[in-house]
Structures are given as structure tokens and as C-alpha cells.
Amino acid sequence: MTSLQSTRPLLRCCSKVTSNIRSLRPLSRSFTVGRPSTAPESQDERKSTHFGFKTVDFTEKASKVAEVFSSVADKYDVMNDLMSMGLHRPWKSRFVSLLNPGRLPGSPNAQQILDVAGGTGDISYRILEHMTDINRDVESRVLCTDINPDMLREGERRLETDPSLARWKDRIEFRVENAETLESIPDNSIDIYTVSFGIRNVTDIPKALRTAHRVLKPGGVLGVLEFSRVKPWILDEIYQRYSFSVIPVMGQIVAGDRDSYQYLVESIRMFPTQARFAEMIEEAGFELPVGKPYEELTFGVANIWRGIKM
Amino acid sequence: MALRTTTRPLLSALARPTARSYHSIQYPADPLPHNKRQQSILDAALTHVPTYGFSSECIAAGCRDNGYLDATTNLFPRGAMDLISYFFAKERVALKGKAEKEGLIGGGGRVVGELVKLRLKGNVEAGVVGELSQALAIMAMPSNVPIALKELSLLSDEIWWLAGDKSVDMNWYTKRGSLAAIYGATEIFMTKDSSPDYQETWKFLEHRLSDVHKLGSVAGGFADYASFTAGSVISLLRSKSLLK
């Protein structure tokens, strides 16, 4: 990426201009735009990982991520709407309809869905809705887990306060679980495992993927919705500019927490490319969908990967 | 990126189209793009086609038959189209064995009709003729057209290859193009044919083949005429020292 930038003199002078403008505004600090100081692949030493662009100790990341999400939990859904300009809704709908949860006609068994890093229950409720309204399945259940109790409380609060969600009370359960271990979940017990905008925050991603493989039944599917790389470079340039200059400020104004959203945009930048993440899924023992290892949404801003345990 | 793909052959193989669009003596024929487990799911799914039609329900049933789950259908991201293209590819690959049994290998242009007939009889044997119009409709959806056309061209190449065609000129293309058109038309005719043993379909096929034969000789005549005229023009220009 850095070598790419040097070949774009026009854009570079643009960035000079914008950084000048930026220095005039009191709200924004000086920071490099979308350029991690170290390459994403340089995290070979076992004991350290990245927290945004910073390199932190392996044990430290979890607590730092916990801080971030505890601080934004109550504003999480509002911020999602603002930051993605509402796009996270169609992304999530697409994600759920692709996975097509719910028992199909002629199927003997109800399904058990596991929503990891489910937080405020956004995906879990969509899954229940899809199962019931599309596939006419009124039995299959969802287990919504998150490592952060504050985020889970937000999901439970929605279940209590939102009358449209009241019908799911008997079919959803909330539980605090670490995605790397999923200790309370037995082997070969899950039909569909979903993780939406969460895998990025896990300290040891390969370990979480192996655990997903462990808990899934043979034939079960892992569905991941996550940010990755935007393809035509011109759109990527716009996207980077938007995420590094607008989102942290938005976080400051709406959630009163700039650092958390600075972490958010940096962590997106550090996530592997679409192809590399598909490989990581394969390395964990999954089979990728035939001929289509992943699906890009909105030029690769968000992406859906699926892995099938065979 | 280029560097990345070279170090990761597995995924780059997925991303690249793996099959060649023609036969070559130098390279062995490409196998189907599915592994054994996927094939057994799709084979089981095909047995449900007479009941459910070419649909994702078949794939779900095929998954269950193999001891997998409804969710396993995620393995086939194009749904019904994955089943359809598997069916056509499987029938295409099976054609060689059937042609050997019938002694049609290397029979030249006159066995082409027989080979088409043999391939279409595969639809009858699989019991899917009633569902073919649905399959063709799905194949005609814009996102599926490239896959369908590729399969059609592979089949028409396969048939000419089995017939022993060795042409290396423009005929290579015209033969395959016209055969693809005939095959497509005959298959569509077949979906609406209610005559016993599909007699009307075979008649239709014969007529189309003889049309091409006539058209071929007209085209050949035109080519002769054109090359003669071009030769004369060049000779004329040379005689006037305008061309060396």
C-alpha cells in the first residue's frame, strides 16, 4: 500500500491540503490517514498482537477491547447507523438470508444457532425473524454470546423493552462466552455459527476459528460478516478518508468517546484481505463454498465468508 | 497481490477459471470441479429432481441423504444453478463412455447427430426431461448465462472431439458454434415434446443437421468464391506493378 501511494502524486497533494485544513479544526488531532505503521503480516512474535495500529501484549488486547465495548455499549446501535449510513442493515439482512437459518421443508430436526460476539442481539433477532417468517420454523433456537456482559445486557434490555422482539423470549438465550474457547458449548452441537463484525476484535483469530469448527456439527456452517479491503483504489481512498477523519469525530460527538472509534477504524484497517481470511477459514478445517470463497458487499467494505465443516 | 497468489496455490486455483474451453491431446481432460463428498451430495440431490424440480430443496435433500444438515446447502452458493451445472457437466463427462459402448468414437461428421441424440437420451435416463424447461429458465438468468454458455461450448467441443474432428482452421469455430446452436434448439424442443420415445425431437434434430449441411456448403461455396476473387484482384494489381 505504501508503494502505491508514492505512485499517486495527485492524491498525495490532496492529502497535504486536507491535512492543512484538518490542523485548523480544534476537534481533530494529527494522525496518519489509513496507514498502519507496521505491515499487518509482521505480527509473527507469538506473544503480541495489534490493538488498532498499536502493538500490544497478547493478554492485554482482551481487556482493551472490553474497555472499548463497555464504553460504547449503550450507543452501539445508533453509532452503527450513523457510521455506515444505514448500510449495516442491508449487510446484515444479506448475511442472514444467505445463511438461510431455519429448518427447511422435510427436515426432521430443529436447529441450534450460535451467534458469537452477538452483543446487542442484532443478528440473533434477525435470524429468529428469518427462521420464523421465511422458513416457518417456530422451534429452532438461538444462543447469543458475547465476551462483554455490558453488550449482552444491552441485548437483553432490548428484548424487555422492544415489543416487536417480545415473541422471541422463549427461543433466545444470552450467555457470556469467550469466542476463543466457548467452554460451555459441547462439540458437534451447533448448526450455524455466526459472527458479525466481531471476529476482528478477537485476540487469537485462528484459535476462534478452530473452536468454531469444534462446536459445529458435521455439515454445519460458519458465517462471518466483517469489514475488509475496498477494491477500486479510488473508492478505497475515499473510504479511508471517511473512516479516519469522520468516524472518530462522530464517536466523540455522539458517544463521547473518540478513542474507541479510533480503535474501530484502525482495527478494520488491520484485518486480513478477503482472500487471506478465506484461507484462514480453510486452515481451521472448513470447506469453502464451491467456486465462491466469499461475497463482497458495497465494494468490499463488508464481506461475507462461509465455511462448511464436512 | 500477485506475489500473494503465487504463494497460495489453493485459493488462486479457486479464483481462476480452472477448465479449458477446448480439448487438447497435450493435456488430460479436466475433472469436475467438485470433490468426492460434494459429488455424492449432488448425486443424491439429482435423484430428487423428478420430485422437487431443479431447486435448492433438492440440494437440502441431498445433504440430508448424506447425513449432513440443511445448513450444508451453504456449500453451494449458487443454489439451483450449482445443481444444474453439475448435472450438465456430469452428463457431458459421461458421454465418452456411452459413445465408446455404441462405437461412435472417431466416426466423423456423420456420427455427430448420433452423439447429440445420445447426450439428450441422458436427460431421459435421469428422469429430468419434465424439469428441463425450469432448468433452462434458470440458466437463462443474466448471472447464470456465462456459466450456461461455457457448459454448452464445452459440450459441443466434447462432441466434435469424440467424433474425431481434427480441424485447425476457421471450421473449428463454425463447427462448434453451429452444433451448439443445434443442441440448444433441440433441447428446448425436447422440453415440449410429448411424442412417444421423443420421435419428434429426433426428427427435429435431423432437420436442423441437414439445414446446417446445406448452409455449410453454401458458406463453403462463398468462401471459394471470395478467395478466388481476392486472388484475381491481387494478380491484377501485380500485373500493373502496384503490388510486389
UniProtKB/TrEMBL annotation, chain A:
A cellular component term, taken from the record's GO annotations: extrinsic component of mitochondrial inner membrane
Q: Catalysed reaction per UniProt?
A: a 2-methoxy-6-(all-trans-polyprenyl)benzene-1,4-diol + S-adenosyl-L-methionine = a 5-methoxy-2-methyl-3-(all-trans-polyprenyl)benzene-1,4-diol + S-adenosyl-L-homocysteine + H(+)
- Disordered: region residues: 29-48
Enzymatic class:
transferase
Citing just one GO molecular function, the answer is:
2-methoxy-6-polyprenyl-1,4-benzoquinol methyltransferase activity
> Which compartment or compartments is the protein found in?
Mitochondrion inner membrane
Positions that bind S-adenosyl-L-methionine: T120, D146, N178, A179, S196
Which SUPFAM superfamilies does the record associate with it? S-adenosyl-L-methionine-dependent methyltransferases
Q: What is its main location?
A: mitochondrion
Q: Please name the pathway.
A: Cofactor biosynthesis; ubiquinone biosynthesis
EC assignment: the record states 2.1.1.201
The protein's topology relative to the membrane is:
Peripheral membrane protein
Similarity section: Belongs to the class I-like SAM-binding methyltransferase superfamily. MenG/UbiE family.
Question: Subunit structure of this entry?
Answer: Component of a multi-subunit COQ enzyme complex, composed of at least COQ3, COQ4, COQ5, COQ6, COQ7 and COQ9.
Q: What does this protein do?
A: Methyltransferase required for the conversion of 2-polyprenyl-6-methoxy-1,4-benzoquinol (DDMQH2) to 2-polyprenyl-3-methyl-6-methoxy-1,4-benzoquinol (DMQH2).
UniProt protein name: 2-methoxy-6-polyprenyl-1,4-benzoquinol methylase, mitochondrial
Species per Swiss-Prot/TrEMBL record: Ascobolus immersus RN42
From TrEMBL, chain B:
Q: Annotated pathway, please?
A: Cofactor biosynthesis; ubiquinone biosynthesis
The superkingdom listed in its UniProt entry is Eukaryota
Keywords in alphabetical order, please.
Lipid-binding, Mitochondrion, Transit peptide, Ubiquinone, Ubiquinone biosynthesis
Check the record and name the Gene3D superfamilies matching this protein: Tetracycline Repressor, domain 2
Specify the COQ9 C-terminal domain's residue ranges.
146-216
Q: Name one GO molecular function term.
A: lipid binding
Tell me the ranges covered by the Ubiquinone biosynthesis protein COQ9 HTH domain, including all copies.
Answer: 38-62
Recorded hits in Pfam families, A to Z, give: COQ9, COQ9_N
Q: Name one GO biological process term.
A: ubiquinone biosynthetic process
Which InterPro entries would you find in this protein's record? COQ9_C (IPR013718), COQ9_HTH (IPR048674), Ubiq_biosynth_COQ9 (IPR012762)
Subcellular location as annotated: Mitochondrion
Question: GO CC terms for this protein?
Answer: mitochondrial inner membrane
Span-the-membrane segments of this chain are none
Entry's family note: Belongs to the COQ9 family.
Query: What's the stated role of this polypeptide?
Result: Membrane-associated protein that warps the membrane surface to access and bind aromatic isoprenes with high specificity, including ubiquinone (CoQ) isoprene intermediates and presents them directly to Coq7, therefore facilitating the Coq7-mediated hydroxylase step. Participates in the biosynthesis of coenzyme Q, also named ubiquinone, an essential lipid-soluble electron transporter for aerobic cellular respiration.
Q: What is this protein called?
A: Ubiquinone biosynthesis protein
- What organism is listed for this UniProt entry? Ascobolus immersus RN42
